[in-house]
Design a protein that fits this description.
Blueprint: E1 2-6, H1 12-23, E2 27-32, H2 36-48, E3 52-57, H3 63-76, E4 81-87, H4 102-130, E5 133-138, H5 141-145, H6 151-171, E6 176-183, H7 196-199, H8 211-222, E7 233-236
Parallel strand pairs: 1-2, 1-4, 2-3, 4-5, 5-6, 6-7
The protein binds NADPH dihydro-nicotinamide-adenine-dinucleotide phosphate (NDP).
Residues 7-8, 10-14, 31-35, 38, 59-61, 88-91, 111, 138, 140, 183, 185-186, 188-191 line the site of NADPH dihydro-nicotinamide-adenine-dinucleotide phosphate.
């Protein structure tokens, strides 16, 4: 059984990626932190279309939880390989730097950047042994351009972008690609307090993007035909910036 792990698969962009990968024939491990009801809803969408998946709860910022939950799953399923990893789970805590508290810096770094390291390291050895793997990191326009009020988030996403480029060079020979997808404004819970009506004036395509559009790009990157694309950051932002 070929498996795909999507962190933060209970809602938003992660949910759309889970549904897309299941439609491509992957058994999807739907990770989430606490929102079990929404994660079950993602699984239901998958099963309604005759796909398969299962829930795998863990906090991506908690090294021990990753070892226990994800490491435990891998030990219990030696016959199944995680061929695709989508590091999607993320949070933002926007505030101007002069008012930013330690906790606001730390939590954003842990959830968006440290998680990349801990989760990827957990699945990487098996990918290296199988000489096959696709890793896609969901970053942000903020990590490319930097946005005021987001020094923490911009730093974390920028860190993942640099790590994407470095890891791609480490594992390319073993048939593993590592790429990043950088969305602009996408309609999810994360952007529910941002007015599309006001913001669309600065978006050439004149609207927010959809989670399904991001999922389509992820599906392209994990396809076998994309094996020569690695270490790239691909923007999906309606033409705002790249
Ligand atoms: P949402 O807020 O809609 O969903 C966030 C998801 O991440 C949920 O599934 C949530 O799980 C999960 N999550 C959050 N923290 C953790 C954690 N510590 N451990 C495990 N899972 C966690 O976000 P989006 O779908 O909008 O964003 C997805 C990714 O895309 C993020 O990395 C974000 O930074 C990035 N992005 C989003 C943009 C946008 O415009 N929406 C723009 C650019 C980048 P639970 O349901 O359990 O809380």
């Amino acid at each position: 059984m070929k498996c795909a792990l999507v962190t933060g698969g209970s809602r938003g962009i992660g949910r759309a990626i889970c549904i897309k990968l299941a439609a491509l024939g992957y058994h999807v491990l739907i990770n989430f932190k606490s929102n079990q009801t929404e994660a079950e809803q993602t699984l239901k969408f998958i099963q309604d279309k005759n796909g398969t998946g299962e829930l795998l709860a863990f906090d991506v910022s908690d090294r021990r939880a990753i070892t226990e939950s994800l490491g435990g799953w891998m030990t219990r399923h030696p016959e199944n390989t995680i061929e695709v990893l989508v590091n999607n789970a993320g949070i933002k805590e926007d505030v101007l730097m002069m008012w930013m508290k330690d906790e606001q810096w730390d939590s954003v770094m842990r959830t968006n950047l440290d998680s990349f390291f801990y989760v990827t390291r957990q699945v990487l050895t098996e990918m290296l042994m199988k000489r096959n793997g696709r890793i896609v990191n969901i970053v942000s326009l903020s990590g490319l351009k930097g946005l005021p009020g987001q020094t923490n988030y911009s730093a974390a996403k920028g860190g993942v972008i640099a790590a994407t480029k470095a890891l791609a060079q480490e594992v390319g020979r073993r048939g593993i690609t590592v790429n990043a997808v950088a969305p602009g404004f996408i309609k999810t819970d994360m952007t529910e307090n941002i007015s599309e009506k006001e913001m669309k004036a600065i978006i050439p395509v004149n609207r927010f993007g959809t989670p399904e559009e991001v999922a389509h790009l992820v599906a392209f990157l994990v396809s076998p035909e994309s094996g020569y694309i690695t270490g790239e950051v691909i923007s999906i932002n309606g033409g705002m910036y790249s």
